[in-house]
Write a structure and sequence with these properties.
mainly alpha, Tetracycline Repressor, domain 2, DNA-binding, HTH-type_TetR-like_transc_reg
């Protein structure tokens, strides 16, 4: 039942927004009762955190797989990441990044939702550092920050702009940032 509640929350929260969806709507969609809901979640915020954790796991698995598949070839990994995000942006119902959306609805940095968003963004930055590690850049953390900015941009552009163009633009932009990055000195 916990998974059904998270699945219902995933559909509703992503499509309609976190604050717009009541616990009652989630309960109705999952086909359960309030008693069952509160057996699994103490509050709506706990459900939102569980929803975001499930989204984070999917993203992390995909990014980790892309990095592993590239086996040190940054362009291969970035290409996979760009293709996936471009395909998602072109899918019906795409509303951008659920974490950016959550941050907009939960601006309090001390809320459990915002802490999860921040942790996920930190994970992404770490993933970009792992991605560029084979290139031996002078400041991989700075490049990871640049790539994170581009990742945020593709998520917003996919929702607000022309989704069919985002994958190629993301890939070109990432490659340009990496190409311009100074390499670590040999000595």
């Amino acid at each position: 039942m916990r998974e059904r509640l998270i699945e219902a929350a995933n559909e509703l929260f992503y499509a309609q927004g976190l604050r717009a969806v009541s616990v009652d709507k989630v309960i109705e969609r999952a086909g359960t009762t309030k008693v069952t809901f509160y057996r699994h979640f103490q509050s709506k915020e706990d459900l939102i955190v569980a929803y975001l954790e499930s989204r984070a796991e999917l993203e992390r698995n995909g990014v980790d797989a892309a990095i592993a598949h590239g086996a040190g070839d940054v362009d291969v990994s970035l290409g996979l990441m760009a293709d996936h995000t471009g395909a998602a942006a072109c899918s019906p119902g795409f509303r951008g990044c659920p974490f950016i959306n959550a941050a907009a609805e939960y601006p309090d940095p001390d809320s459990a939702v915002r802490k999860l968003v921040d942790a996920h963004r930190d994970w992404w930055t770490g993933a970009f550092i792992r991605l560029v590690a084979p290139l031996e850049l002078a400041d991989p953390a700075a490049i990871a920050d640049d790539l994170m900015l581009l990742r945020d941009g593709i998520m917003v552009a996919g929702y607000l702009g022309e989704p069919t163009k985002v994958a190629a633009s993301f890939l070109r932009s990432c490659q340009a940032v990496i190409r311009c990055a100074p390499r670590a000195s040999a000595g």
